[in-house]
Amino acid sequence: MSNDNPYSQPQQPQPPFHQPPAKSGGMSTAAIVGIVLAVAFVVMLFCGGILVALLLPAVQSAREAARRMSCSNNMKQIGLALHNYHAAYNTLPPAYTVDANGRRLHSWRALILPFMEHQALYEQIDFSKPWDAPENLAVSQTVVYSYSCPSTTFDPTMTNYLAVVHPQGIMSGSTPTTFRQVTDGLANTVLVFEADSGNAVNWMSPDDSDLQAFLAAGSARDQGGHLGGSNVLMADGAVKFVSDSADQTVRTALVTKDGNEQVSSGL
Questions:
Q1: What CA–CA distance (Å, rounded) separates 198 from 227?
Q2: What would you report as the CA-atom Rg of the chain, rounded to the nearest whole angstrom?
Q3: Which of 72, 110, 228, 242 is most enclosed, with most CB atoms within 10 A?
Q4: Where is this region: Disordered (predicted)?
Q5: pLDDT value of residue 7
Q6: Whose CA is closest to 242, among 185, 233, 74, 169?
Q7: The pTM is what?
């Protein structure tokens, strides 16, 4: 029987029911990849830090070994210059030059400049006036790199390559010495050594070292230097690395040129 009720509403067709897709309980692939990359980055940073910490001492040691070798080469060049000076004048240079009143004027380092390939610099020096006179100021402020140990950190116009000025040493003062006077043997006698930084002087200065400073070498390394010892230039031109703990008697024997001491061991 038909529904003739005029008040009834026609039924609207219902849209089909769609259930929303179920949410995944895990993370997306992109999120997982991002986390993996972040973890890998952190691990790389951590491992890199460990690697740097392990390699740093080795790198520093290698750099110091290179500086020590460069220093040794500087001293060998100085030794060659001193030998060439002796060949030219039949004597080594004095530790310093003096004027008529005995006042110190210039260092042996200034005298050997022509043999260090610094003839032009040598010709600029007024040897009749002190090293620190106004006429010599420009030269004294010139850096001679062969007089500067690369392990030191002070002004490069300073040097700690010093002679041991001693009455029985090769460098005894204003009087020059010949190799024939070195009866202890050139290989057993010091020409130049690396002093502690506190004893450094301007390379033109006529001041050097004494026996006491040589005996105390290595006691202060506040401005650099070589770990455990220092380079020493022997009269035969060889460079030896002398330990800071070397016997004091041996050190004294190295300074004297005619003391007949035995210095074959104890360095």
A1: 16
A2: 38
A3: 110
A4: 1-23
A5: 47
A6: 233
A7: 0.74
Distance, CA of 264 to chain centre = 28
Domain assignment present for 23: no
Structural domains in the chain (count):
1
pLDDT at res. 107: 98
Kindly state whether residue 114 falls inside one of the protein's structural domains.
Answer: yes
Q: What is the pLDDT of residues 51-96, one digit of tens each?
A: 555 555 555 566 767 777 899 999 999 999 999 999 999 999 999 9
Whether residue 170 is contained in a domain is answered as yes
List of residues 6+ apart from 90 with CB closer than 8 A: 178
Report yes or no: 177 and 255 within 8 Å, Cβ to Cβ.
no
